[in-house]
Amino acid sequence: MEKLQNFIDGVYRAPIGGTYIDNFEPATGQVYSLIPDSDERDVELAVEAAEKAFPIWSKMTTEERSKILVRLSEGIERRMDEFVQAESRDNGKPVSLAAHVDIPRSVSNFHFFATAITHFSSESHYMEGEGINYTLRKPIGIVGCISPWNLPLYLFSWKIAPALAAGNCVIAKPSEVTPYTAYLLGKVAEEAGMPAGVLNILHGLGHKVGDAIVKHKRIKAISFTGGTKTGEYLARTAAPMFKKLSLELGGKNPVIIFADCDFADMLSTTIRSSFSNQGQICLCGSRIFIERAIYDKFKKAFVEKVDRMVVSNPTDPNSRMGALVSLPHLEKVLSYVELAKEEGGTVLTGGVKVQLEAPYNEGYYMRPTVIEGLAFDCRTNQEEIFGPVVTITPFDSEEEALMMANSTEYGLQTTLWTSDLKRAHRVADQAQSGIVWINSWMVRDLRTPFGGMKSSGVGREGGLEALRFFTEPKNVFIKY
Ligand code: NDP
Question: Does 363 contact ligand 1 (Cβ within 6 A)?
Answer without folding.
Answer: no
